[in-house]
Amino acid sequence: RKALPDLNYVATVYNSIQLEDFDFSGNGGDYIAWLGRVTPTKGLDTAIAVSQKLDKKIIAYGFIDSGELSYFNNIIKPLLAYSNAQFHGETKSKQEKTRLFANARLLLFPIRWDEPFGIVMIEAMSCGTPVVAFAHGSVPEVIKDGETGFIVNPSNDDIRGNFLIKKTGIEGLCEAIERIYSMPDTEYQKMRRASRAHVEKNFRIERMVDKYEEVYKKILSQNLT
Question: What is the pTM (predicted TM-score) of this model?
Fold first, then answer.
């Protein structure tokens, strides 16, 4: 909305998923997951650098557009020399995507732009996997800070909110990730259950359809009076 302030906004209807396509895991796994287009705005280089700094395994999947080959070859490939970094290209099926999320400790979403939504966040949370993300774009509307993951301000000069993690930038991401890895099992499993419940309540396809119908009825009612 900030980018296009002159439009006539009627309501906000969030994107959704078919919840049944994503299996819930109450325990998760031991690695950091990343999924997205391989482009600087999505921050794969940041994700690998953070995992290296923390000595954590990272498994990444992503589509490489022909226009981003230089970024991949010059920036990402050298980072993949890190022994705990794996890049597998584009996911081939929903089952493969579900396994990536369900078996991860967390999804890292270090975006550099004001993402309009970021559907991978709700896909991960539907599997029970919490999300650690920079507070760009829709992130503060999608993640419940401290309940389904952690939101981090991008820098000291770019404060988007008063979040639980007070450090910013890469240091903030590291603090958030370490907090999730150090959680007692009962607390971590509670976060995973909360992540699934958050998607069930707010981002399943039936809710999106209901919200669109509400908008259409509102518009029709206004036009008829």
Answer: 0.94
